[in-house]
Amino acid sequence: MKKRGTQIGMLIVFVLLVSLMLWYYSATTSCSARALKLEEIRLPSGFQIEVYAGNVPGARSLALGSRGTVFVGTRDEGKVYALPELKGTHRAGKVVTIASGLNMPNGVSFRDGSLYVAEVHRILRYDRIEENLNEPPTPVAIHESFPTDRHHGWKFIRFGPDGMLYIPVGVPCNICRPEDPRYGTIMRMKKDGAGLEIFALGVRNSVGFDWDPVTGELWFTDNGRDWLGNDLPPDELNHAPVSGMDFGFPFCYGTNIPDPTYSSVNRCAKAIPPAMNLGAHVAPLGMRFYTGKSFPKAYHGQIFIAEHGSWNRTTPIGYRITFVRLKNRRAAGYEVFADGWLQKNRAWGRPVDLLVMPDGAMLVSDDRAGAIYRISYKER
Q1: For 297-336, what is each residue's pLDDT tens digit?
Q2: What is the pTM of this model?
Q3: Which domains are seen in the chain, by residue range?
């Protein structure tokens, strides 16, 4: 009888513990959802947004591992996170910090079982990372010669269809002409760090790019300069089908308009104009072609852009996800897809990067709220 009583007591304790854990999970999830104000996000009919992970401080660039792990870079936090998906759900099970103390590790990219991380001055590689999330391997530095300037020094990285790793090098200023030819470019190199070369130039500060799934051509966002007023210059979406193209910075902005700082230098006639002028100071960062199937067909193969939002405009703008519609693989329209992170000129969230998941849903990182959202579509 005593043994049976002990077993019943242990069972009661177990049930109470499980109930407490379920209550805690439910409470923290609902509190997170309320704090994130997802009810304020406006989306087209049929779309919904939910929390994928709600405790990811400084979440910025996103990359997907071969086993479904979402990797997240940060900037000021100096950390890199891994988010294994909780089986049977559409959310992360936990947030694992796989690196800390790094120098603005904004960029992350996954290739052949390895995670590549971009610091300001170098690229690191973590081999067999998904097999060792709780005990990450010592990283290999594959390239360490990038400039050390922190002003626009954080980097977005991705592997292109050519197998090369693409790395932008922003200018260390608002507007200037650095002597080092690497500034104001998008560069690329082999996955072992060899063969570094300039792919595109005249690029002030790109923090997001992707390749057209139909043509294999590069598209990228670029952040325009400050202090020309509230409505100038436009930020840009650019198209670089081949290497060696010059997109005009610092000599011109927008549709080949001479910048007043360098108006005496006639370099705009040969510059490549934007594929689409975006809003002034919206701060376009991550961009993705939609390669999933679950969104309506009107979105297939089209471009989504995460607009981080203005920092010094009199009336704030951005803080949203926009949609660029293509016609014959050329930009033909620009519209708001999701907004609501900005309320009464105050922003509670700032979208940074986008990631299309295997099920067709789209993840959105938010470095202000420290969260990852999941946008999905369900026909009504």
Answers
A1: 999 999 999 999 999 999 999 999 999 999 999 999 999 9
A2: 0.91
A3: 47-377 (2.120.10.30)
